[in-house]
Every structure is written in C-alpha cells, then in structure tokens.
Amino acid sequence: MSEKNNFTKKTMMKQIVLILLSVGLIQTLSYSQKKNESVKNCILMVPDGTSASILNFTRWYNDNKPLSFDSLLCGFVRTHSLDDKITDSAPAATAMATSQKSGSGFIGMSLDSVPLITVLELAKIQGKATGIVVSCEHPHATPAAFTSHAAKRSNYETINEQQVYNHLDVVFSGGGNDFLNNGKYSKKEKKNIKRKDEENLRDTLIKSLNYNFISTTDKFNSLNEKSKVWASFDTDTSFLLNHFDNLTLKKHPTLAEMTDKAIKILFQNKNGFFLLVEGSKIDWAAHMNDPLGVISEFSGFEEAAKVALDFAVKDKNTAVIICPDHGTGGIAIGSKNTNKNYDDTKYASFTNPLKKVKHTPEYTSTTLKKMLQKNHSDTTKIRDILSIHLNLILSPAELKKIYAMNPADNGYEDNLYYELANLLNLRTGIGWTTYGHTGEDVFLAMYHPKNYILKGVIDNTDIAKYIARILNLDDFKESTKKYFAPHTEVFQGLTISIHNIDTNPELIVSDGKKTLRAKSNKNYITLSDNITTKKIELKTVIVFSKNTFYLPVNLRQVF
Ligand SMILES: [Zn+2]
Predict the structure, then answer these.
(1) What superfamily in CATH does domain 37-333+434-482 come from?
(2) Which residues of 355-389 are buried (b: 16+ CB within 10 A; e: fewer)?
(3) Residue 265, pLDDT score
(4) What is the Å distance from ligand 1's center to 280 Cα?
(5) In the prediction, which pLDDT does 28 show?
(6) pLDDT tens for residues 513-555?
(7) How far is the CA of 244 from the centre of ligand 1 (A)?
(8) Phi, psi of 541 (to 5 degrees)
(9) Residue 435 Cα, ligand 1 centroid: separation in angstroms?
C-alpha cells in the first residue's frame, strides 16, 4: 500500500467518523429539540372577532390592569381565506383546524367540498381526550370547523350529527336542545325543527353513546368528572347570555367555570387532551358595534384564558394558544366625534359611561321588546329601563327616536340594539368602521412550558401545524387521505349503490358475499353476510359530499 493511498484511506476514515458523529449529533439535536417541543396537552383559545383595540379598551375599562396574557403576546396572525382578504369565520376556523385555507362557508372542507382532517380529530386518533367549550350554539362555525365537515356552515343538520358521532369527551355550549331534539320547537329559529332523517340526537347522546347530558348549573356543579359530558345550557336563546348579564342573572356557569371543569374532565385521560375554547359572542357584539358587549364578552373570555394559563403553568405539560380568528367591526379608541379633542380626552371619559351599566344593550333590547309586547302603550318605562340597565340619560331627541320605533315591527329588537349601542358609542368616543368583519392581522399569545413558541407574523394555517407538531400528531395530508378517501377509490371493482340522497344518504357496497352499509355522518359501518351483521366502529365520521362518501381507506380490507 503506497503512502498516498494510506493517506487517502486515513482521510476517508476521518471523514466517515466525522459524518457519523455529525449524524449522531443531528439525531440527538432533533431528538432533544423534539423533546423540548412536545407537550401532552394543548388548549386553543379563540376570542372570535377580537380586534386588538378590544385588548386596550378592556385594560382601560379595568383601570389599566394588565390582561392575563399580556406578557405572552408574541406576534400577529394573517387571517385571509383562500378567496377573500376579509375572512368568514368558517374558513378562518378551518385554517386553524386543518392547516388548509378554504372559502366562505366551508367547515373542515376544501373549496372543492372535500373533507380535511382536523387537529381535534388527529388528537382523538392519537388517543387524546377532546373537548369544546363555547358561548354560542355548538354547531356554530368555529366549533363546527374542528369537529365536522360541511360545505355550508348553515348545514346544522349535518354538522350536529357529525359532532354527536365524533365522540368528543366534553361539549359545553348554549342552546343545544334547539339543535338536538328532533321535531321540537326551536327558540332561535322560532319554528319546529325536524331533521330529515328524524333522528333525535339528544336521545342518541344519552341512550346510545352514554353521555351525561345536562342543561343546568346544579347538574354542572355536581358533574362526575369521569364520564363524557354534553352540556347545553338552557337560556331563552340558542346561545349563552352575555357574560356581564350572566354575572347578575346567574343562568349558567361562566366560560371560565366551564373551561376549568372541561380541563378537569379531559385531564383524566392518560394520553393527554386537546381543548378548544371560544369566546363566541365578542364577534356578535362587534357586529352590532356594541362597546359594552365586546368588553363583556372579552372579559368572560379573558377569565377563561386565565384559568387555562394557570392550569398550564402548574401542569408543565400543556401549551396554550390565544388567537382570534379575525377582527370584527373595526373598533377604534377614538372616532369622528373625537376629531378635534382626541388629545384632550381623559381615559376615564372613555370607560366611565360603561362602568355603571348593569346590563348589556343586547339584554336591554330583549327586555324592552318583551315588555312592550305585553303592553304597547307602556312606553314611559322605556326611559326608566334605559336609565337602570344602561345608565343612559337620554336627550329629548334621543328619546323621541326610540319612542318612534314600533315594537310590532320585524327587527325591532335588533334595531333597538343598534340604537342603544350607538348611544353608548356617542358617550364613550369609541369608533367603528363596519358592521362586518375586518381584514387586519390579529394578535397571537402563546404559552409553552419550554418556551417553544411561534413569533413574528404567521399565517392562521400555522396554528394547526404548530398544534400537530407539539402534540406529535400524524401528518394532515396523509391522514386526510387515510381517513377521508372517496368511496369510488376505496371500493373500486365492487358493486356500489347510493340510497336516500335527500334524506339520509347511505352507501351500499357488495362483493356478492358480504354487504357493507355506510350512512353519512356516522362513525360506524355495518357488514353482513347471509348469517350475521356486525357493526364496525371507525375513528372518524363518514362524510357525504357531492355524491361521494369519504371514509377510511382500510375499509377495503373487510372484503
Ligand atoms: Zn362574525
């Protein structure tokens, strides 16, 4: 062996050793990085429609007291949907749930109406407990996009059914009876709701799926933390009362109490949990340009965020993400009324008119409507109620405008609500640009026990990717292919027929010996031969969209 060859060999050996060492180092690094990223539990907190000014406004309202997550604010989130600069809640939630942008109205689905697996479903597949805590009705856009798949957010029949069969461990929301009881009167819709498939989903929850179904605070307080629970709190509406109204009326637990209870229930699962908490009605108040409503609803949300953060800090194995889905209303501290005196208005003048308020404009307009429906001529009481509820002393011109509104008119309640909100705005110097959503970036606050957080400007789809990463969940795209494969591909070559498309779509597949039956929105199929029929449970629900059933690819193996 020549000297030269020997030298080359030595150098090569050195290089190989170096390569091996560096591979080992990279593996160790990525392992320790992964170890630093991974957590067992994740709580995503969405204050729906919260533009950043609401944070500032709430601090002033609370005499400049910092918010529980002020020190955790770390970036901005872009919210646009696939086709619009200003997003609708459905694609905004779909982006945060599935890591994919979609279009207006789409719930857990792409623009071409194909289901996309959600982070909640991936967590469930991983054996984690899952839950939603919201102040709206449970089939509303944000909770729906994490728990179901539909091309229209208004398709409550489909969304409801998938939510029921998606077997969440905890659902706390408002007004569920409206949407679960087949054929019962709906307070919100003001009509009898009859499902086309005539299934009573409330019975299904209680009798077939063994849920603890509750609707009162007493039952809530004595909940057994070991069983699955579905709470639909009974109010006069299909959603929860505004936080400030509920503090006085105590009709149901607060969002913070529900968050606390949900965490206690979900924490029992040894594999960890994923929980979505939404302050749903901040958006609704902002749509009405109601300055008190947004403070009320954001305060309720912020209390819940504090509960989640306190738990996470103590637990040391939980990440908390706080991020609105979009802005609403274009709220500003300052308005056209402060054009000239903006630098001469003490902060107390912004918030003092709201501090003595006993009820929100929403509750006040509902109360007035009820009162005037009973006695049309009782208008003298309007002034008293506005003074007691809203601390509003009206000028003769303002009173005249309200007296002129006819309680018998359609939309009286909403028109009165707009007017009352406007009167509060005039007294506080709060300005608004729209009754719709807005397209600005929204704030991001994060807590992670090892400080593995996202910073700077991120996209709303990054939220889903981040959650999947820290919880070590399966890949979104691969899992969507695995659990939501089109029936034409899964059962290629077999005899396929589709039945009851308009009422209760069912797929029937046969190889001549065995017959598989799959119904839309259910999480099971049945398989029968000449002698027996057996039920096979699936990890996900079956989605029917545009004449195609989407179901697990491995169902082919039953034949
Ligand atoms: Zn909205």
Answers:
(1) Alkaline Phosphatase, subunit A (3.40.720.10)
(2) eebebbbbbbbbebbebbeeeeeebeebeebbeeb
(3) 96
(4) 9
(5) 45
(6) 999 999 999 999 999 998 999 999 999 999 999 999 999 999 9
(7) 20
(8) -85, 160
(9) 9
Q: Cα of 286 to ligand 1 centre, how many Å?
A: 8
- pLDDT tens, residue by residue, 204-231: 988 999 999 998 899 999 987 788 999 9
CA 90 to ligand 1 centroid distance, Å: 9
Which sequence spans correspond to the domains of the chain?
37-333+434-482, 348-429, 485-558
H or E element that contains 233? strand 229-233
pLDDT tens, position by position, 427-439: 888 999 999 999 9
Which residues sit with Cβ closer than 5 angstroms to ligand 1, an ion? 283
What spacing in Å lies between the alpha carbon of 552 and ligand 1's midpoint?
34
Question: What is the distance in A from the centroid of ligand 1 to the CA of 485?
Answer: 32
Query: Side chain identity at 212, as an amino acid letter?
Result: N
The distance of Cα 213 from the centroid of its chain, to the nearest Å, equals 20
Q: Tell how far the Cα of 81 is from the centroid of ligand 1, in angstroms.
A: 14
Name which residue leads in pLDDT, 182 or 554. 554
Ligand 1 midpoint to CA 109 (Å): 19
Q: Which residue has the tokens 């989605």?
A: 543
CA of 53 to the centre of ligand 1 (A): 17
Q: How far does residue 327's CA lie from ligand 1's centre (Å)?
A: 8
Q: Which CATH class is domain 485-558?
A: alpha beta
Mean pLDDT over all residues of the chain? 89
* Contacts of 531 by beta carbon, 8 Å cutoff, 6+ apart: none
User: What DSSP state is assigned to residue 473?
Assistant: P
Q: What distance in angstroms lies between residue 328's CA and the mean position of ligand 1's atoms? A: 6
Residue 473: predicted pLDDT: 97
Burial 121-131 (b: 16+ CB within 10 A, else e): bbbbbeebbbb
What share of the chain has pLDDT > 70, as a percent? 89
Q: Cα dihedral sign for 88, 91, 95, 96?
A: positive
pLDDT for res 27: 46
Ligand 1 centre to CA of 284 (Å) is: 6
Per-residue DSSP letter, 118: -
**Rounded distance, CA 20 to CA 27, Å?**
10
Neighbouring CB atoms inside 10 A of 213's CB total 21
Ligand 1 geometric centre to CA of 511 (Å): 48
Reported confidence tier of residue 350, pLDDT bands at 50, 70, 90: confident
